[in-house]
Specification:
Low-confidence stretches: 1-49, 398-404, 451-466, 470-477
Order of helices and strands: HHHEEEEEEHEEEHEEEEEEHHEEHHHHHH
Strand content: 15-25%
């Protein structure tokens, strides 16, 4: 238990020694005794505060690892130049070698978005549309590209049509959405005005009507228009089919998040290696936390090796990660120790960053998610082996009950800790009141006996009680 909340109380009610307590230091001993007896339990689980504390520290370490890995996946993480944004919710930037250092005003007028078409609703996702005769669905794109998808018997449902279009991999994704009127086929293109598309079908007449675009009868409805991202940097306009935009400033690339204005400052990157070192420290903290839980909680000693091994395997990058002589962590000075932790050779890391920062960046993150940081994120983010839900379920099954959500479990832990603290506060408040009462009695007696040559002034009630002979002589006189 954190005793920091009792500091002010202790400062005010100082004479705890009267009651056999050595101040706040005694709290640790009492709390330790409670922990050893398993008295501080959550929902009747019997788990000690030691285990709860270790679990909390491990969950915190996992969160820190996620943050450290995310930093390594951001554009420009290993650039020799840093780009600071006054409004990162509007736009962030990265700068390549040769980008002029200084301040840039970025205005985002419009974000890139994809076109979305939605069909008429069907009773179910398996309701037959038309006769099932062979039909060709044609797609014509604004950039001049065209594609077609053949559908036959069995494909003439919204479920079957979505599967056929996705199999064709033509740059349009299909999904089935449900609503109050039934099930609809939704077609989404890639972002950018050039990827806007129209659809037509030949073959079965009912399917031809179903796919008519622009809408006609039971045709497709345009629910979102494709558009490019638009904005300016220091007044110079840019346009991009995606929300990652190159600009007229050499080497300056923008990641657009919302419309608005932000100021970017391009300057020197003080320490490119810091993010990597932080990542290694965070990784080691998680491994250490898993070890602690394994020792303290017998039910976790089989799961811990699996989780530690899963985390260790994520350190192996995919084929697309890295380049040249930088293909694995050891190539940049990061080595594995016998206990599963990592060590960093700072000089070797700095040398790798100096000679080929792009390869180091690729080692940690790629567009296909094959970098080391990408793979670690997959394990610690939602649905990963070390996601909060999964770690709680595997590390503390006795703390959970059927249907108990992670939020409720965390609430139980916090409430139990709060109740324990309130218990301490209540006890010490009572001691403080008793101390104040004794002090009042001391003052009263001193006032009553002030004319005595042997009065209690300066001696205090406690001193008088420790010398009954003096008290007796005073009253006898």
């Amino acid at each position: 238990m954190d005793s920091s909340g009792l500091t002010s109380i202790y400062a005010y009610y100082n004479p705890y020694g009267l009651y056999g307590l050595g101040g706040l230091s005694s709290l640790g001993a009492v709390a330790a005794a409670n922990r050893s007896q398993g008295s501080s339990s959550v929902s009747g689980s019997g788990s000690s505060w030691t285990t709860v504390s270790s679990l909390g520290q491990t969950l915190s370490a996992v969160s820190n690892l996620q943050t450290a890995a995310e930093k390594l996946t951001k554009p420009g993480a290993f650039s020799s130049l840093s780009v600071a944004s006054s409004a990162p919710t509007v736009a962030r930037g990265s700068a390549a070698e040769g980008t002029a250092q200084g301040a840039y005003t970025v205005r985002v007028d419009q974000l890139a978005q994809q076109q979305v078409l939605t069909s008429a609703a069907q009773a179910t996702q398996y309701t037959a549309i038309g006769s099932g005769a062979d039909t060709t669905v044609n797609f014509q794109f604004a950039n001049g590209r065209s594609a077609s998808v053949d559908v036959g018997g069995g494909d003439n449902t919204v479920k079957g049509l979505a599967a056929a279009i996705n199999r064709a991999d033509i740059g349009v994704s299909a999904s089935v959405v449900s609503g109050p009127t039934g099930y609809q086929l939704q077609l989404s293109g890639e972002s950018g005005a050039g990827n806007a598309f129209t659809v037509s079908a030949s073959g079965d007449s009912t399917l031809s009507d179903f796919f008519s675009s622009p809408p006609g009868g039971n045709g497709l409805l345009l629910t979102q228009q494709a558009q490019d991202a638009k904005g300016s940097v220091n007044g110079s306009a840019f346009t991009s089919g995606t929300n990652t935009a190159t600009t007229s400033v050499e080497g300056l690339t923008l990641k657009l998040n919302a419309t608005g204005i932000t100021n970017l400052t391009v300057g020197g990157n003080a320490d490119q290696a810091a993010a990597v070192t932080d990542f290694v420290k965070a990784y080691n903290a998680v491994q250490s936390g898993l070890n602690s839980l394994s020792r303290e909680y017998a039910g976790f000693n089989l799961t811990a090796p699996y989780l530690r091994n899963t985390l260790s395997q994520a350190l192996t990058p995919g084929a697309a990660a890295g380049s040249g002589n930088i293909q694995k962590l050891a190539d940049i000075g990061i080595s594995s120790n016998a206990n599963g932790s990592l060590s960093v050779d700072t000089e070797k890391l700095r040398s790798a960053l100096s000679s080929n920062a792009d390869a180091v960046a690729s080692l940690f993150s790629t567009d296909k998610g094959e970098g080391v940081a990408d793979r670690i994120l997959a394990q610690v983010s939602e649905d990963g082996a070390l996601a909060v839900d999964n770690l709680l379920k595997s590390a503390a099954p006795s703390l959970t009950t059927a249907g108990l959500s992670t939020a409720n479990l965390q609430s139980n832990l916090l409430n139990a800790m709060f109740n324990q603290q309130q218990n301490w506060l209540s006890q010490y408040s009572g001691l403080g009141n008793l101390t104040a009462s004794l002090g009042s009695t001391d003052s009263l007696l001193s006032s009553l006996l002030g004319s005595s040559n042997n009065n209690l002034s300066g001696l205090g009630l406690i001193g008088g009680l420790s010398n009954p002979a003096t008290v007796t002589s005073l009253f006898s006189s």
